[in-house]
Amino acid sequence: MRNSSLTLAAAVALSAALLGASASSDDDGTQPPAGITPTRATLAFVIGLNRKAVGKRTPGLAATRTETWTVSTDGLTGTERFVQSGKDERDDENVGPFHTASGTLAGKSWHQNANGEVVVEHDLHRLDTISSRAIASQDPSALSLLGTVTVPVDAYVIKVAPPGGRLIYLYIDKTSGQIIRRDSAIRGRRHIVTYGDFRTTDGLTEPWHAHSTDGRPENDRDDTLTALSLGAPVDPASLAIPQASTPVALASPRVSIPIKLMDDRIIIPVKIGAHTVDFQMDSGASVILINNAVVHALKLPTYGSSLGDTAGTYPQGRTIVPLLTFGGVTMTNVEMDSAPFTWWTDEHTPVAGLMGFDFIDGAVVHVDYQNGTLEAYDPATFVPPAGATALPIALDDDVPMIDAGIAKAIGHLFIVDTGADRSALFTSFVSAHPSDVVDLGLGDRELEQYPFVTDFQGVGGTVKYRPLQVGPFTFAGYVFPKWMFTGTHGAPSFEGDDFDGLVGQDVLRNFDVYLDYAHEKIWLVPNDRYKSRWG
Fold this sequence. Notes:
By secondary structure, the chain is mostly beta strands. It has 11 helices and 39 strands. The longest helix has 12 residues, at 43-54.
């Protein structure tokens, strides 16, 4: 939803559309605005002031909406079209040479990336939904009127802080009653959206301009509404989930991919033009990432620029690679992220990219850790191996998320990550289940023996952690009495908003693993490593 009468609840729903990646900073967005002074106004008065300012749609109009926007983001410009009919909606964005889309149809949310791949979501991330519902119901335990400010705007300030929801500060103009600014705490940084150029259409007054920032100009986004229609007929085809496509083509229904399995890291030599570049297959990567030095050396086109965040902050852009080949796999016209990424598996093997979602989604990918092989199957003809255990996954974030348990606690947002050397527990999970993540002894002993080894390298920087031995660890019906995890902390951009942790190579190496995104499954077959230890 791009606009839709900017009531308090609608302002919360705009966050995903207007804001991108976040990063750690001194201003994490949790502190209230400076300079707040008390007010005699009540919360009910301010909410009423806003509702009166927004107005009501002209009676008799159909519940439809069409919006056209101009967009400026990441150094690129383009257009966006939003269509809504009742509860169904679709948003299409064309920025530079890239087209992406998202929407909701018959209660199901979906999105399409720039390579044409479509994911139907499971709506696992609830932070903004919880805050929006708290506002709509005027929940007195979640909303509080803090007072007024004169800087940066003359406004009432409402704090939105429901349990399990997004922390938000809303600024309501004291004269007009309109929401003119929203501050959100997202992954350790304050994100600010300001609204202006309010116009009235068929009884509703709403902003025709929005500007978002996370405090770094490189990531600013500007949206200007150029056309708005309310109540006009909407073609059902304009709300449909688009036909999925993939840049992946297989030479046959089952192909072998040459790899180097190095400490259980899956290294794929990929031919780009006349050159070969090593990528690591990484199910924890929501994109394909390539070193920008390789992009420059191969004279590939570059588009846009911004600051990305994973383990740290780094400059990033985008490119389109005309052709990649590895084994029996061909990928054409592949959109990739580019960043200063290089690391070495050994002194002879520099890795200059991550082969993430856009490849894995186009095939069923079979990793045989014990024999060091990698295969790809055509999803249309793939048949799971006999005796395989089906592990349901959700791909809302273009990474496979599963249920997993630690002692008596269950997490629904563990990422299956072939790029992680060791499984991890994130801050939110550890904080929510302190009695279930008490170290069983080995973590403390490791910390005593290696007191200075308290961080690991990730894309863009390092992440602080402490070793934790916990258990039993369970997933997909398998039970591991004790398991060593890294307990990360102080890394909101690495951990994300509400993820529970990672299931890494240390676990996966005990199985033949089939990544079957097309059917929202991971198939697991215990190998001899598993059988020799757990039987």
